[in-house]
């Protein structure tokens, strides 16, 4: 009985420590898609273009928006859902597009309330994550740098 309790505690500690290490920035559900993009418009990354989208790489998703930012050589996509289960389901369908864990440059992390994937797809670095009712995708060569910027901006709101 004691060994089982220790094993459960260790599994929980490892799972929760991973959530602290792997950031999944998100917004409260009251924010709109437009505000999710507009919040990132700054001197460092001025918003050049934004538009509506409902699919990505041939995968039909919920209503979303894309943003093109100066000083970032890629695209940022954000999708908002009414239900967390739908968010997770669409995220799982989307990440199947990017290949499998057998790829050399592939890192996936998934828990009950969030998921994160970092990989290379069609010569682009891709970072995608979901948390709550939000699904986010960054594609581009300096996607990690832009991810850290998003984490900083969205982190100020939480």
From TrEMBL:
The lineage of its organism: Bacteria, Thermotogati, Thermotogota, Thermotogae, Thermotogales. This is DUF3242 domain-containing protein. It comes from the Bacteria. InterPro entries: DUF3242, TM1622-like_sf. It holds the Pfam family DUF3242.
């Amino acid at each position: 009985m004691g060994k089982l309790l220790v094993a459960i505690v260790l599994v929980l500690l490892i799972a929760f420590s991973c959530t602290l290490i792997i950031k999944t920035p998100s917004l409260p559900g009251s924010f709109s898609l437009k505000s999710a993009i507009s919040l990132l418009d700054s001197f460092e990354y001025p918003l050049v273009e934004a538009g509506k989208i409902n699919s990505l790489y041939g995968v039909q998703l919920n209503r979303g928006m894309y943003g093109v930012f100066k000083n970032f050589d890629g695209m940022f996509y954000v999708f908002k859902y009414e239900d967390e289960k739908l968010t997770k389901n669409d995220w799982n369908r989307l990440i199947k597009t990017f290949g499998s864990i057998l790829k050399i440059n592939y890192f996936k992390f998934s828990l009950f309330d969030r998921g994160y994937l970092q990989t290379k797809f069609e010569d682009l670095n891709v970072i995608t994550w979901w948390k709550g009712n939000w699904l986010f995708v960054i594609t581009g060569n300096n996607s990690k740098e832009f991810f850290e910027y998003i984490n900083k901006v969205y982190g100020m709101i939480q």
